[in-house]
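Just scan this pair:

***
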Amino acid sequence: MQRTVQAINFKNKIEDNMSVKVSRMKPVIKPTTPHKHAGYHELIFLSRGSGMHSIDDNHFDVKPFIGFYLKPGQVHCWDFSQIPEGFVILFREEVMSAFGNTLNNLFRMAEKFDLPENTSLFGLLEQFYQEYKTGSNPGILGAYLNLTLLKTLELADTPLEIEPSIVAEFYRFKTMVNEHFQNLRQITDYAELMNISTHRLNAICRSAAHTSAINIIRERILKEAKNMLTHTSLNVSEIAYRLNFSDTSNFIKFFKSLTSLTPLQYRSELK
């Protein structure tokens, strides 16, 4: 992939006054440039098409029937070889305020999930799309979105056995990390924001994701570093500065400790 941009662009495909938007997948195969979506989630369901979908540093073959889930801030791009068909749902979290348990379990959704060919989900999506097109009120659209998410979680075989309060707190922590990872690096920072102890925060992370809170923070920083190395032409020093490292050598040490590669070695392996 050619790196010609100096920064990863944000695209806003949903108006500020909207909480949910449903559309059909555009019937085009022109490759898209890597970009982020800020402030909203994205669900894609494809019944036709083939090609490649890149999300952060993961690359997925597009083979119907398939779905993708993008969290706010993730980098992605398409490279289709056959015209796609399906649906795209964009939504802000406020539309799901009445369905907290469903929203809290979204973090367990895989970035890519396979769908059975005979699923009734696409019929539901068509109804959802028609309700959106006819201007149904937010309550109805929120109910359709909740049903779509529940059905998707079921089809994606997503385990929901964790206590709902643990799920909610873990999701809140992940959201905070996504918003503040460039400036807040310590567990104590997030524990204070959440008004809980560091011990409690680590217990939540171990229960929900089988890892520690510091690993969640480090993985988010690493993900952003990989995105910049993959999708921009920024040099290592510039990336270190943008990620708020004290100097380039500390960034290199951090990156190598988690990947066994230097940033330049990682970038060279992408070619």
Observations:
- The chain has two domains: 9-155, 164-269.
